[in-house]
């Protein structure tokens, strides 16, 4: 075919559009786990169980005890750009849910065998939708939703070739759950692989997500990252002097920053969140790193879990389909907040004491 030859412009078939979108959202099994966890948390789940087989390539099953999906909405949930989370541009600008693009389930359904099994509070049994055939039949389950994803990338073998070993894919899946667990101590998480329990983080009782009470949060940090993470870190508390319209600080930063001695060779314990969403962001990484400028030398990587709370109107989360990146309206403001927050923590008397304690 002559590439210069003029060919007619055509709409792509729906299925292909979804598969192209899936290329952006779903890189590997862990991407599916992340999307399904986002959905479970958006549905108000208090317990989420992830069951995997062959590193998630053969099977990903995510079960939650959230609000469920009514029977008539099951097929809609699989449609592209169908969401219950926003309805207008105003909603988008103040979005508080993890999801809002209405893309994930449609994308996953186009590259895997998927089924949705769900029950809402007002029905006496569950319904199951087969993603391939669209068939809906009665099923049984307590309130909540189970999403089953089998044979990921069966339709896109090129993608499948890029997958690593089952062990590596499993590790990425566990990472995805860990990132959610670190910001939701009020939710219990369990991960099973080939029928064996691999990780379990119990809900820290009484921990209200909005209260962010540090003891509960510390408990979760210790459960997920190890007791030494908490022992060798200092609590971070910072509020900008600028205020939102409702009087709350424009930027708040809290969490824990590791003492310099806790630094590691790899940057594998650096967790940053913006409004409850795990992000990988140059501004935040740079700000945290610069707080260690004078106390950490060479290539050693600080450890931290930092939670930034900012007026949603000051950020744009709609930058990338996976929402792992955010755009700050005023990135200097955020950089300073994170840097000061971390520096203040490192300069606190306890940080000095912790340093002096070291043999
Ligand atoms: P988004 O999360 O961006 O809305 P998704 O494709 O991930 O898009 O999900 C589509 C819709 O399906 C959601 O808006 C929600 O109404 C429903 N849904 C998906 N997963 C769950 C779940 N675990 N519990 C309840 N509802 C769900
Ligand atoms: Mg979603």
Automatic annotation (TrEMBL):
One record GO biological process: mismatch repair
Family in the record: Belongs to the DNA mismatch repair MutL/HexB family.
Residues of the full protein shown: 4 to 362 of 643
Protein name as it appears in the record: DNA mismatch repair protein MutL
Its biological purpose: This protein is involved in the repair of mismatches in DNA. It is required for dam-dependent methyl-directed DNA mismatch repair. May act as a 'molecular matchmaker', a protein that promotes the formation of a stable complex between two or more DNA-binding proteins in an ATP-dependent manner without itself being part of a final effector complex.
Phosphoprotein among keywords: no
Keywords: DNA damage, DNA repair, Endonuclease, Hydrolase, Nuclease
A GO cellular-component term linked to this record: mismatch repair complex
Gene label: mutL
Domain spans labelled DNA mismatch repair protein S5: 221-347
Keyword Hydrolase: yes
GO MF terms, alphabetically ordered: ATP binding; ATP hydrolysis activity; ATP-dependent DNA damage sensor activity; endonuclease activity; mismatched DNA binding
């Amino acid at each position: 075919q002559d590439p210069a030859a003029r060919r007619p412009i055509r709409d792509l078939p729906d299925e292909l559009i979804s598969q192209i979108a899936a290329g952006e959202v779903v890189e590997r099994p862990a991407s599916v786990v992340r999307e399904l966890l986002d959905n479970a948390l958006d549905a108000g789940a208090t317990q989420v169980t992830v069951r995997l087989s062959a590193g998630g390539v053969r099977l990903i099953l995510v079960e939650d005890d959230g609000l469920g999906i009514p029977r008539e909405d099951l097929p809609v949930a699989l449609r592209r750009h169908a969401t219950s989370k926003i309805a207008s541009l105003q909603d988008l600008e103040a979005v508080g849910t993890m999801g809002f693009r209405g893309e994930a389930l449609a994308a996953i359904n186009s590259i895997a065998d998927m089924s949705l099994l769900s029950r809402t509070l007002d029905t006496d049994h569950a319904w199951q939708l087969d993603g391939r055939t669209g068939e809906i039949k009665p099923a049984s389950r307590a309130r909540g939703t189970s999403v089953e994803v089998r044979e990921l990338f069966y339709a896109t073998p090129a993608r499948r070739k890029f997958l690593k070993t089952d062990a590596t894919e499993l590790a990425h899946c566990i990472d995805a759950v860990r990132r959610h667990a670190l910001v939701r101590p009020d939710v219990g998480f369990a991960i099973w692989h080939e029928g064996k329990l691999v990780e379990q983080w119990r809900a820290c009782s009484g921990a209200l997500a909005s209260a962010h009470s540090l003891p509960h949060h510390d408990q979760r940090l210790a459960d997920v990252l190890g007791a030494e993470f908490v022992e060798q870190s200092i609590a971070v508390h910072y509020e900008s002097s600028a205020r939102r319209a409702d009087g709350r600080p424009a930027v708040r930063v809290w969490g824990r920053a590791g003492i310099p001695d806790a630094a590691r060779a790899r940057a594998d314990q650096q967790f940053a969140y913006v409004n409850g969403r795990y992000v990988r962001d140059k501004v935040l990484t740079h700000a945290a790193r610069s707080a260690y400028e004078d106390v950490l030398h060479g290539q050693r990587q600080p450890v931290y879990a930092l939670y930034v709370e900012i007026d949603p109107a000051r950020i744009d989360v709609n930058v990338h389909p996976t929402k792992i990146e955010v755009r700050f309206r005023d990135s200097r403001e955020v950089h300073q907040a994170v840097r000061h927050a971390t520096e203040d923590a490192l300069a606190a008397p306890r940080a000095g004491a912790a340093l002096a304690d070291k043999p």
